[in-house]
Amino acid sequence: MTLLQEKPLNIPQGRIDMTHGSGGRASARLIEQVFASVFDNPALAESNDQARLTLPEPGMRLAFSSDSFVIFPLFFPGGDIGSLAVHGTVNDVAMAGAKPLWLSAGFIIEEGFPLSDLDRIARSMAAAAHNCGVSIVTGDTKVVEKGKADGLYINTAGIGAFRAELDLSAKRVQAGDAILLSGPIGDHGIAILAHREKMSFAEPLLSDSAPLNGLVEHMLASGVDIHALRDPTRGGLATTLNEIAKTAEVGMRLEESAIPIRESVRGACELLGLDPLYIANEGRLIAFCPQAQADKLLQAMRAHDKGSEAAIIGSVVPDARHWIEMRTPLGGSRIVDWLNGEPLPRIC
Amino acid sequence: MTLLQEKPLNIPQGRIDMTHGSGGRASARLIEQVFASVFDNPALAESNDQARLTLPEPGMRLAFSSDSFVIFPLFFPGGDIGSLAVHGTVNDVAMAGAKPLWLSAGFIIEEGFPLSDLDRIARSMAAAAHNCGVSIVTGDTKVVEKGKADGLYINTAGIGAFRAELDLSAKRVQAGDAILLSGPIGDHGIAILAHREKMSFAEPLLSDSAPLNGLVEHMLASGVDIHALRDPTRGGLATTLNEIAKTAEVGMRLEESAIPIRESVRGACELLGLDPLYIANEGRLIAFCPQAQADKLLQAMRAHDKGSEAAIIGSVVPDARHWIEMRTPLGGSRIVDWLNGEPLPRIC
């Protein structure tokens, strides 16, 4: 008989209490029965305080990213905090052109949180990780008193590997580049908002939360000299383009009519007084490549299911002010500023 | 004129509001003025959503670890949440015998949190990282509404590198190994508790929060065949030894009189009815090596300032029950179980 009795947790009815964050027997049980059992992989099974990992090939470079997820509510149309926490970090790693390999998962749980929800979220993370081809190899669980969190927050950090000759970075974006977008914008933010506000639409609105590493791999295989990739999450397409313009010290010119937006998202935005350019996406990417190769890259993107609605939305121009200007369908033009204020808190 | 005005934040009087978590202009300002300015390093300066990194030598393996820090209060005798978040992850990485290289930092901040405290914590993290020889290369900031967190939670994930021939892992611990401890136990947990309870002692109690990577490097240089290293944080020495016994499928025998404990910690524990074996440490490690090399390893540890009070505290024995037994000074013996319950919540 060992001292750590394998007493099963009551997952259907049980709740998290402070002992689950103690680092003692209750913590060990929670980790074994809720997390380790579904995240199962050799690095995790070694039961050390760190995962020990080997790169697929010596000499590869690493891409390393981290995101905390505080989305409310935890379950939403098209996903949940678990799958989102996997996709979000996988995508940030993939935007370096890297193959995402390993994730860490850190849970901050509010006392009283239902074990059944935690179990459902852990299974969703495991399924998402499997789907992305990554392993959750290390992690941590903390519990805070009732009223000191909002159910559950998750941090994921991710490591990917890429060949040293690859150089995808915002600073490589230059005048003459085309700007490509992989699909319609605003789905994630508007789906969350509509769900919170109990709005309903003829066409149901789903988050676009999805892994983009497969699409990126496919785009790299096209042989196009991609300068940079970025996923326009918080702050939306507008803010992401402004960030890149600032880093690359360029301006951009967009064609409003070329930017794909679903009718339901456009309608919801009009109703709510929101601009879809500022709404978060969780399964879209922006790509920059020389104008001359843009059609080739577009074809590659459209041939992949995560890029089937891709479009060329504008171009990079010299501009010391680093402005993003957008030509409207009526022939006018407006400046697309950084997001000001906070239209949709806790969207990711 | 660019659209991102470099308007300085009012750090002495300002407070975090929801816009700082929007991913827009206010987020960019916060990141630039509070975090990027003090974490300054080339990977971070590239302003991508991920850090792109090169291992010191091709063919090295990676150690990857993550921890969330929810300690209360944020500032305590001997440290703060910022330095603790760096030391905690650096130490978990170092316990693989790896050289810690890079950290991510994820901040979950409660609306209304003073910018001056955030600035102080960011500077403390930067100083701790510098002291450990690691760079904070990527990160994320989220803001949640007033009452949905307790000031600030920080997640750090860390990557270290080690030569492929090195194999420090709990499963290598075996009967015949000596158990070494790098210094007195209980300082961190008791310092936090005393501070919370406004207890005072003749000798002031400080957390032992400290980086252990220098000590580990020194121990590895001794040439001793170290089987495993582990830092006894949450759950204390007792729980950490039980975890290793379970993984390695062994038992352990401890000498109570050999375990270093400060008089002030012993006194506080007696007063509070706590057992120092279960109190968290943040700057101590346990090492396992063949008995025959234990004195050599002990000398190496004592020659380093982070191991000057090191001691041999017991040995590993065959035991199918995986029990930790401790011989008391009076000649009796008791079983040292896993931590049950939660004596000290939110200690890290």
What is the level-2 CATH architecture name of the largest domain in chain A?
Answer: Alpha-Beta Complex
**Biggest sheet overview of chain A:** 7 strands, mixed
Low-confidence stretches of chain A: none
Total of domains of chain A = 2
Would you give the CATH topology of the largest domain in chain A? Phosphoribosyl-aminoimidazole Synthetase, Chain A, domain 2
Indicate the percent of residues in helices of chain A: 25-40%
Q: CATH superfamily of the largest domain in chain A, called what? A: PurM-like C-terminal domain
Strand order of the largest sheet of chain A: 9-11-8-12-10-13-14
Secondary structure class of chain A reads alpha+beta
Output the radius of gyration of chain A.
21 Å
Shape of chain A: globular
Structure description:
Two copies of one chain form a homodimer. The longest helix of chain A has 18 residues, at 115-132. Chain A folds into two domains: 3-163, 2-Layer Sandwich (60s Ribosomal Protein L30, Chain: A), CATH 3.30.1330.10; 170-335, Phosphoribosyl-aminoimidazole Synthetase, Chain A, domain 2, CATH 3.90.650.10. In chain A, helix 1 packs parallel to helix 4 (115-132) and helix 3 (81-94) runs parallel beside helix 4. The mean pLDDT of chain A is 96. Helix content of chain A is 29%, strand content 23%. Chain A has nine helices and 14 strands. Chain A is globular. The first copy, chain A, has helices spanning 25-39, 42-45, 81-94, 115-132, 187-196, 213-221, 236-248, 263-272, 294-302; strands at 51-53, 61-69, 75-76, 79-80, 99-110, 135-144, 152-162, 177-181, 228-230, 251-255, 286-290, 311-317, 324-327, 333-335. Chain A has a seven-stranded mixed sheet with strand order 9-11-8-12-10-13-14. A four-stranded mixed sheet of chain A has the order 2-7-5-6. The first copy, chain A, has 348 residues and is α+β, with helices and mostly antiparallel strands. Chains A and B meet through helix 1, strand 1, strand 2, strand 5 and strand 6 of A and helix 1, strand 1, strand 2, strand 5 and strand 6 of B. Strand 1 of chain A pairs antiparallel with strand 2 of chain B, so a sheet runs across the interface.
